[in-house]
Amino acid sequence: MFQKRTSAIRKSVDHLAELVYITAPHHIKPPTLSGEYVAESDDDVSEEHKPFGWWYAPRYKPTKDGYFIGYKESVAYIQQVLKNQGPFDGILGFSQGAAFAALLTELLENKSHEFSSFDHPPFKFTILVSGFKPTMQEATNTLLTTEHKVKTPSLHYIGDLDTLVLPEKMLSLTEVFENPVIFRHMGG
Predict the structure, then answer these.
(1) What is the pLDDT of residues 98-125, one digit of tens each?
(2) How many domains does the chain have?
């Protein structure tokens, strides 16, 4: 779905760059009445319209190891993508994908973290649209901090009328990057 929504961008940079679209590995259903996300999606929805995610955030039930459900599998998945299809100059992510892209950007810079065994150079840039810091994940709380700012050049798109990811959350993510470029618009 993201590929269709960005077709105009893809066409405008086609002569400059190859865009590779990576779908998150986990099917996600909307939250139930209890607020929990579940790992399987409806069979009657076409594959193209099913929502995918990089992890499931367990509400009120932290996991024993401190990671979001599915996060470790997503890291292993993206390691294979980087190894088999890379190297990549940069990354663009939207919403949870932007949060994951921000984490990945730092992991490629910060080789001391548990999940930093990537055989890939740091990105030259990162573009984060409606991104946020995944603050509920205890195991990665040493990443994306203002004490050790991410040096990779970053562009942050912030929708002032966004109701899913509040602008304050998006601005919080910009604070962990050195010299972030921020583009604000009146949309959601």
Answers:
(1) 999 999 999 999 877 666 677 899 999 9
(2) 1
Closest CA to 39 of 25, 28, 23: 28
- Secondary structure (DSSP) of 86-122: ---SEEEEETHHHHHHHHHHHHHH-TTSTT---SSPP
| DSSP secondary structure letters along 30-68 | PP-TTS---S---TTS-GGGS-EES-B--TT---TTSSP
CA–CA separation, 2 and 21 (whole Å): 8
* CATH code, 31: 3.40.50.1820
Nearest of 96, 94, 155, 97 to residue 124 by alpha carbon: 155
Q: Burial-class residue 104 by CB neighbours within 10 Å (0-12, 13-18, 19+).
A: buried
Residue with tokens 């990576």: 22
Q: Convert the pLDDT of each residue in 24-49 to its tens digit.
A: 888 877 655 444 444 554 556 566 66
Largest CA distance in the chain: 48
Partners of residue 150 on adjacent β-strands: 177
- The domain in which residue 136 lies consists of 2-185
Enter the pTM of the model.
0.82
How many whole angstroms separate alpha carbon 106 and alpha carbon 115?
Answer: 11
